[in-house]
C-alpha cells in the first residue's frame, strides 16, 4: 500500500494567464482575454489560460 505524502504546503492556485498569485497585493481579477470570461475554449473545454475560471489575476499597481 502506497501513501502519498501530502505534507507539502499547498501553494495558491495559479493559472497560466495569471500575472501574480491570487491574494497578492496590488493585484486584481480581470476577464480572461482568451475566453472572454466564459471559462471555456472553442471546444467547450476549460480554458487553459484561466483554468476555467474566466478570470485571471493581474497586477493593478501603478508601478
Ligand atoms: Zn480563460
Description:
It is a single chain. This protein has strands at residues 27-31, 55-59. With 63 residues, the chain is mostly beta strands. The chain has a domain at 34-63. Strands 1-2 form a two-stranded antiparallel ribbon. Bound molecules: zinc ion.
In short:
With 63 residues, this protein is mostly beta strands. The chain has no helices and two strands. It has a domain at 34-63.
Q: Report mean pLDDT, rounded to a whole number.
A: 86
* Shape, principal axes of CA atoms: flat
Alpha-beta content class: mainly beta
Approximate helicity band: under 10%
**Distinct small-molecule ligands in the complex:** zinc ion
Biggest sheet features: 2 strands, antiparallel
Query: What string gives the helices and strands in order?
Result: EE
Q: Roughly how many Å is the radius of gyration?
A: 15 Å
- Low-pLDDT residue spans: none
Total helical elements: 0
Q: Largest beta sheet: what is the strand line-up? A: 1-2
Number of strands: 2
* Terminal residue distance: 52 Å
**Strand proportion:** 15-25%
Amino acid at each position: 500500500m502506497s501513501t502519498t505524502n501530502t505534507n507539502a504546503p499547498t501553494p495558491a492556485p495559479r493559472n497560466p494567464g495569471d500575472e501574480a498569485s491570487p491574494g497578492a497585493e496590488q493585484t486584481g481579477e480581470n476577464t480572461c482575454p482568451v475566453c472572454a470570461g466564459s471559462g471555456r475554449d472553442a471546444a467547450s473545454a476549460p480554458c487553459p489560460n484561466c483554468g476555467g475560471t474566466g478570470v485571471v489575476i493581474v497586477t493593478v499597481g501603478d508601478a
